[in-house]
Amino acid sequence: SRILVLISGSGSNLQALLDASRADDYPGEVVAVIANKADAYGLTRAENAGVDAIALSHTSFGSREAYDQALIEKIDAYQPDLVVLAGFMRILTPGFVQHYSGKLLNIHPSLLPKYQGLNTHQRAIDAGDREHGVSVHFVTEELDGGPVILQAKVPVFPEDQASDLASRVHEQEHRIYPLVVKWFCQQRLCMLNDQALLDNQPL
Ligand code: GRF
């Protein structure tokens, strides 16, 4: 399967996907990486892996719709089977989300439905949570609200700072995102009526 990855920053999840997809039996291939920021380090990771790396800055577009339309054109040129959001820090328009419905995945650093939006690690600490984690989900029009496919939990220790928790969560992100992408590429995963199915079983 052809995978296209959207990023805004460091791209450590992109790296995990690039590494996983190097295995001979991995059923997908990253065909391009697009960032909305020209200085996103993930673009360098893509180049180092020999993958097309494209910067499409949002700043010169007059509206969210105009940017998303330009993004759609760039993406569709690669005819991807799957579009993977990996730290793409932009809210997508309904038109964009509908265009890729059922083939758009996101990773969010919380145990959804808890802590949609930003600063999830600090919010988990402030709430006194004993556990925290990460969720991979299909993207729907509701921000961080689409059906969850897989979660991983981590403990929260009393002395944790947000950065401690972030690195603990990142380790799990790098484990579960390539796994879910693999399931998708194996055609074991789909979204039906806003419900995620694995091997035809509701998740
Ligand atoms: C991750 O924490 C991910 O859950 C969130 O954005 C971050 C991206 O990190 N959506 P990286 O760029 O993959 O290192």
TrEMBL record:
UniProt site positions, description: Raises pKa of active site His: 144
InterPro entries reported in the protein's UniProt record: Formyl_transf_N, Formyl_transf_N_sf, GART, GART_AS
Natural source organism: Thalassomonas haliotis
Catalytic activity annotation: N(1)-(5-phospho-beta-D-ribosyl)glycinamide + (6R)-10-formyltetrahydrofolate = N(2)-formyl-N(1)-(5-phospho-beta-D-ribosyl)glycinamide + (6S)-5,6,7,8-tetrahydrofolate + H(+)
Pathway membership: Purine metabolism; IMP biosynthesis via de novo pathway; N(2)-formyl-N(1)-(5-phospho-D-ribosyl)glycinamide from N(1)-(5-phospho-D-ribosyl)glycinamide (10-formyl THF route): step 1/1
Annotated family: Belongs to the GART family.
Keyword Transferase in annotation: yes
Keyword Ubl conjugation: no
Binding site for N(1)-(5-phospho-beta-D-ribosyl)glycinamide: 11-13
Gene3D superfamilies to which the protein is assigned, alphabetical: Formyl transferase, N-terminal domain (3.40.50.170)
EC number of the protein: 2.1.2.2
Stored CDD domains: FMT_core_GART (cd08645)
Function of the protein: Catalyzes the transfer of a formyl group from 10-formyltetrahydrofolate to 5-phospho-ribosyl-glycinamide (GAR), producing 5-phospho-ribosyl-N-formylglycinamide (FGAR) and tetrahydrofolate.
Active-site feature positions: 108
Positions bound to (6R)-10-formyltetrahydrofolate: 64, 89-92, 106
Keyword vocabulary terms for this entry: Purine biosynthesis, Transferase
SUPFAM superfamilies: Formyltransferase
Molecular functions per Gene Ontology: phosphoribosylglycinamide formyltransferase activity
Protein name: Phosphoribosylglycinamide formyltransferase
Domain Formyl transferase N-terminal: 2-181
